[in-house]
């Protein structure tokens, strides 16, 4: 049951972050992601370890997405505090993703090739949804 709840929370949080960012409501996704991350940390058996993982994912995501913005490869419509930085809702999304690593994605641990292939194939899927996110 925990796996399904974790997966559902991630999907709802992802949708709130992406749609909130696209439709000038970036606080919506960030707030919902913060609630889900807080509940996840509160319910885990090793909250300090899990929080470190979540914060590390947030830092890695911030650096990576900020690099993509700085290079001009990505442009986000809202939620950016500084020029060249990833918006807060995308950072929240990275942190929310980290919550899935030890729960709903736990089955990929130790299966590096499968994890890589899954990420390469499934990672881009949300981008191809037929939603006009540019407004």
Automatic annotation (TrEMBL):
Pfam family example for this protein? Answer: DUF2878
- Asked if the record carries the keyword Transmembrane, the reply is yes
Q: What is the lineage of its organism?
A: Bacteria, Pseudomonadati, Pseudomonadota, Gammaproteobacteria, Chromatiales
What is the name of the protein in this document?
DUF2878 domain-containing protein
Q: Which residues cross the membrane?
A: 25-42, 54-74, 86-105, 112-131
| Assigned keywords, A-Z | Membrane, Transmembrane, Transmembrane helix
């Amino acid at each position: 049951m925990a796996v399904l709840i974790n997966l559902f929370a991630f999907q709802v949080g992802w949708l709130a972050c992406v749609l909130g960012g696209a439709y000038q409501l970036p606080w919506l996704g960030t707030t919902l992601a913060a609630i889900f991350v807080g509940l996840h940390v509160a319910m885990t058996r090793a909250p300090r370890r899990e929080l470190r993982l979540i914060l590390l994912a947030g830092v890695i995501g911030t650096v990576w997405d900020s690099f993509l913005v700085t290079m001009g490869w990505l442009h986000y419509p809202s939620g950016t505090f500084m020029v060249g930085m990833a918006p807060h809702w995308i950072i929240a999304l990275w942190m929310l993703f980290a919550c899935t690593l030890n729960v709903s994605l736990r089955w990929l641990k130790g299966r590096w090739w499968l994890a890589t292939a899954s990420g390469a194939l499934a990672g881009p899927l949300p981008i191809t949804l037929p939603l006009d996110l540019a407004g």
